[in-house]
Amino acid sequence: MPHAPMPRFPTRFRWGVSTSAYQIEGAADTDGRGVSIWDTFAHSPGRIVDGSSGDVACDHYHRYAEDIALMAGLGINAYRFSVSWPRVLPTGAGAVNASGLDFYERLVDGVLARGIDPVATLFHWDLPQPLEDAGGWLNRDTAHRFAEYADVVAARLGDRVKLWITLNEPFIHMSLGYGMGVHAPGRMLLFDAFPVAHHQLLGHGLATAALRDRSGSPVAIANNYSPVRPVGDGPADLAAAAAYEALHNRLFTDPLLGRGYPAELGFDDAVVRDGDLDVIAAPIDVLGVNYYNPIGVRAPEEDSPLPFEPVPLDGYPRTAFDWPVAPDGLRELLGWLHRRYGADLPPIQITESGCAYDDRPDAQGRVHDPDRIGYLDGHLRAVHAAIADGVDVTGYFVWSLLDNWEWAEGFTKRFGLVHVDYPTGRRTPKSSYAWLRDVIATARREIPR
Questions:
Q1: Is 178 flagged in the annotation as binding?
Q2: Model confidence over 364-401: pLDDT tens digits?
Q3: Average pLDDT of the segment spanning 143-168
Q4: Other Cβ atoms closer than 10 A to 52
Q5: Within 13 Å and on the Cβ side, how many CA atoms surround 286?
């Protein structure tokens, strides 16, 4: 089904794709890389749906030049990747693995040579296992080790990385990794995981200072957000929705923008020391927004340990993850951020947005994914509408360039613009790749050179 022409975006809009180290790099035992919590988790029986791991993943470590060529063919002007902490500091601290840094230098120089801005995320969930053994993000010391790691990376790449992102989705890492146990490191602490939130944010603040000492490039954080919609209009349902919004959308934003932790969550804040909130609220240049879908919430059952119950939202198409496809939610979210934080809100970039479908090559080897084209078309239009509403949105990164290893789902969910045949590593651009290439080409013709 043909789509109407895409409306014009600002001339300096950042068009990009995103990936993460553990999901694509492979080379788990190459160049002195240390063990991460995801290595340990993935090799624990029963943790991953298909029993796979990221040991090889997409073999991006060896095929990065081919992947850069795919980026160049797409026409993007920015590439968001993550640095593997254990590839740089195998034990999380101490001795630097120079060959690991060499890989990221080759990657950064390679994308720059194709006119693409490197956007580096320092932590995309692959904590070095020795740090987890010492308590992980429950341990305040991890925040300081993170700042030291940021300093090491920025000392090598600070003159070339164009945007730094400290943390990726700290809410998801806290809730699924430490709260519910379905992601690495597999702990089940529920609301006792609050120290993980605080220490991640403290690490962000300390790393921000380290980055500014080494690099003149802007600094951001990438938060996951979901508009919260009460299912039911009773007072208990509305209270449940408010509690979930405070946890998911405000816990990692209010303190970043100088407003402290949401008091209504009632966390034991004994881990918060004098001066911590000032470190956390150091100004950032960009707020990264990762958006996939809204969430429905209602009042919980009486015996629930949580003050809310997530429930499916009806009336939307679904992805292979069974997530609702709701572009209206992205416009809603951006408007909420704009209204709530006002002048305190820095420019926004959509640092992840994408969808999983069961994409398969046809008899001619082509991969048609019209549902992904529809998804991207709708969400780009939602961003454009938010800009027209007065929200300062300066970029959109598709998740993801490649089909990849999708955490606890293993290889069963495909998000890529490029299909990957995992046994051979063969890359095949999908029809969504060609569609987005044409959208970007039209948009970038408007950019003066």
A1: no
A2: 999 999 999 999 999 999 999 999 999 999 999 999 99
A3: 98
A4: 17
A5: 25
349 annotated to bind ligand: no
Cis peptide preceding 185, ω within 30 of 0 = yes
Q: What is the mean pLDDT of residues 262-285?
A: 96
Contact 143, 197 (CB under 8 A): no
CA distance 114 to 103: 17
The answer to whether the predicted template modeling score (pTM) of the entire model surpasses 0.85 is: yes
Q: Name the residue ranges covered by the structural domains of the chain.
A: 14-444
pLDDT tens column, 80-109 = 999 999 999 999 999 999 999 999 999 999
The secondary structure of 61-127 as a DSSP string is HHHHHHHHHHHHHHT-SEEEEE--HHHHSTTSSSS--HHHHHHHHHHHHHHHHTT-EEEEEEESS--
Q: Which residues are catalytic?
A: 169, 352
CATH number, span 14-444: 3.20.20.80
Q: Across the chain, how many H-helices and E-strands are there?
A: 14, 13
Q: Closest by alpha carbon to 71, among 31, 36, 110?
A: 110
291 CB-contact burial (10 Å; exposed 0-12 / middle 13-18 / buried 19+): buried
Residue in the block written with tokens 């020391």: 273
Average pLDDT over all residues of the chain: 97
Phi, psi for residue 15 in degrees, rounded to 5: -105, 120
Is 407 marked as binding a ligand? Answer: yes
Residue 292 annotated as binding? Answer: yes
